[in-house]
Each structure stands twice: as structure tokens, then as C-alpha cells.
Design goal:
Elements: E1 10-13, H1 15-19, H2 29-41, E2 46-52, H3 64-70, E3 78-83, H4 86-95, E4 99-105, H5 108-115, H6 119-124, H7 127-135, E5 139-145, H8 158-171, E6 175-180, H9 187-200, E7 205-210, H10 217-226, E8 231-234, H11 254-264, H12 272-286, H13 293-297, H14 300-303, H15 311-316
Parallel strand pairs: 1-2, 1-8, 2-3, 3-4, 4-5, 5-6, 6-7
Bound molecules: zinc ion.
Length: 318
């Protein structure tokens, strides 16, 4: 049987938002602008720039409006931001952001405790955001976080996720991301979930968003690819975490994912060396080592070297 993978995939760099929002020491506005410009220069066609949420709750994202105004907006690149409500969409419209992403937790228990309603009922409330986005000619997508498990549920059933997808479709959102912020997803589960979603909702443009908390990020991406998904989020240097999960790792590191794609012959359109420079800069700014294998070990191709004559004999001895 052939091991089939897509020839080409699309990636979104979520480091400027999902990565940075979890860091105690984070880039200045100017540094964010420079990082984002470098990310688009490396070839990314989708970049999550920041979020329009309460600056008190997430001070790391307080300058998202200014960042949006000052980045070089390259033609053909989608610069998106996370929003939580109508106010977020209004802020997006005011600073020239053309794509926003809503989010709901797949955990019924979490949602009931936080918002006193089910996840689907939360999505129903997004109708006004969708309307405002349309009015302002802003694209809108939706994310389902903890779609593969949460600290409150262990596993989330496929039916539960389907209810949320249907609620999104009902309010007019047909680009949906399945997110594993808690790092609980595993490949066989991802494959099953993604096959079911693909089959049931062919009209949806799907994204997958994996954190590498338990080392399964890349394996989960491969499982998603095998189920026919071809859009994935990743984070420069693997920065990030999750406020609900102590010890959570960030998203799969962009450079690790690019390296895997390079080795497997999957086209991404992104320059891995340029992204390695970005990752190095990010580590410098946040001031600590991150969960990036490539930053530690480099590319496989950098390792290949000629042995000095005479050593080969020794190496073949048992
Ligand atoms: Zn995340």
C-alpha cells in the first residue's frame, strides 16, 4: 500500500499570536513588526498577527492594532487575528485587518463554567460578529479549541464536535480549525476525527492546530494529511503554551514542520533557512530555550559531510 501524503500544503504562522501570548518577556511592537515582515518574506501566505481581546487579560496582544497598521502587507498574504466578540471585529475593521478568527472551546463543561452555555450556543452568539465582518468586508473563520480532549472531558466525542461545526455553518462560517491546545490528541484519533469531518462537511475549509505538549504534534499532522487535510498552523521556534494546561508546549515548531515536509517532498512554498533565522531571533527575544528540534540539531542536510580518508575503515569495524 502506498503511503500517501499531499504534494502541497498551506501553513499559517501563529507564533506572533499563539506563541507570543504565552511569554512573560515578549517582543516590542517594532520587534513584532520586523518578525512578521520576515515571516511573510520567508513565503508564508497566512499569518496570525495577534488578537483583538482585552489588553488586561492578554497584555502581550495589546498592540495588535498598531502592529496591523505598520506591517508591510504583502499582496496575496492573509494577515489574520483572533477575536472574541463584536468589539474585536470592530477593532479589526478600524486598523485594516481583513481576516478574523473566532474561537469556542469544545468542552461542554468548560463552556458551561465559563459562559454558562453549551459550545453550540456560544457559536450562535457569534452571528452578530459574522454580520459585522461581512459589512466591513472582513473574512471570518472559526476555531474549535480542545476538539480532541480537554482537562475537563478527557475525550471529546465526534458528535460533540459535529454539533459545533453545524452551529458555525448555521451562522455562516465555513472555514474551521480543529485545535488541540491541551496537547491531548493522538494520531489514530486525529485520523478518525478528520476522516469523519471531511466526509460529513465537504463544504468546509479545514485547518488543524496542534500543540506539541506530549511530542505528538508532527505525528498528528501526518495523520491529518492522511485524512485529506492540507492546512496546518505552526509557531516559530515552537513558542507558546496553554493557560489551562500546566507545562503545555507551544504549537508544533514551524521549522520542525518545514523540515519534515522538505524531507518528505511536500511543497510548502516557505524558505526553511529564513524561518530558522526568525526562530533564532524569537528565542533571543523571549530569553529561553524552546521546544524546537531544528534549533537544537539543525537540518539533516547540514549534517551530511565527507569523512576524512582513513576513518571509513574504523567506522565499519564492529
Ligand atoms: Zn494554540
Amino acid at each position: 500500500m502506498d503511503f500517501e501524503l499531499p504534494k502541497k500544503i498551506k501553513l499559517c504562522e501563529v507564533g506572533p499570536r499563539d506563541g507570543i501570548q504565552n511569554e512573560k518577556i515578549y517582543p516590542s511592537t517594532q520587534e513584532k513588526i520586523e518578525l512578521i515582515n520576515k515571516v511573510s518574506d520567508a513565503g508564508f501566505k497566512v499569518i496570525e498577527v495577534g488578537s483583538f481581546v482585552s489588553p488586561k487579560a492578554v497584555p502581550q496582544m495589546a498592540d495588535t492594532d498598531e502592529v496591523f497598521k505598520k506591517i508591510n502587507k504583502k499582496a496575496g498574504v492573509e494577515y489574520r487575528a483572533l477575536v472574541a466578540n463584536l468589539k474585536g471585529v470592530e477593532r479589526a475593521a478600524a486598523c485594516g485587518c481583513k481576516k478574523v478568527k473566532l474561537n469556542v472551546s469544545a468542552s461542554v463543561a468548560h463552556n458551561l463554567a465559563n459562559l454558562n452555555c453549551t459550545p453550540s450556543a456560544s457559536v450562535d452568539r457569534f452571528a452578530s460578529c459574522v454580520e459585522k465582518a461581512r459589512e466591513s468586508e472582513i473574512g471570518i473563520s472559526g476555531s474549535i479549541s480542545m476538539a480532541f480532549g480537554s482537562p475537563w472531558d478527557k475525550e471529546i466525542s465526534v458528535d460533540n464536535v459535529k454539533n459545533i461545526v453545524e452551529a458555525y455553518l448555521k451562522v455562516g462560517v465555513d472555514e474551521i480549525s480543529l485545535s488541540d491546545a491541551s496537547g491531548m490528541a493522538y494520531p489514530t484519533q486525529v485520523y478518525e476525527m478528520c476522516c469523519e469531518m471531511h466526509k460529513s462537511y465537504p463544504e468546509v475549509t479545514w485547518w488543524l492546530h496542534f500543540h506539541n505538549t506530549r511530542g505528538l504534534g508532527l505525528a498528528n499532522i501526518i495523520a491529518g494529511m492522511q485524512a485529506g487535510f492540507d492546512r496546518f498552523d505552526s509557531s516559530f521556534a515552537g513558542v507558546g503554551g496553554c493557560p489551562f494546561v500546566p507545562g503545555a508546549a507551544g504549537n508544533v515548531s514551524t521549522e520542525d514542520l518545514l523540515h519534515m515536509c522538505l524531507e518528505c517532498g511536500i511543497e510548502t512554498g516557505i524558505d526553511i533557512d529564513k524561518m530558522l533565522d526568525v526562530a533564532t531571533k524569537v528565542v533571543d527575544i523571549v530569553g529561553h530555550k524552546t521546544d524546537s528540534y531544528l534549533l537544537r540539531a539543525g537540518k539533516t542536510s547540514d549534517l551530511i559531510r565527507e569523512l576524512p580518508k582513513g576513518q571509513i575503515k574504523n567506522n565499519t569495524q564492529k
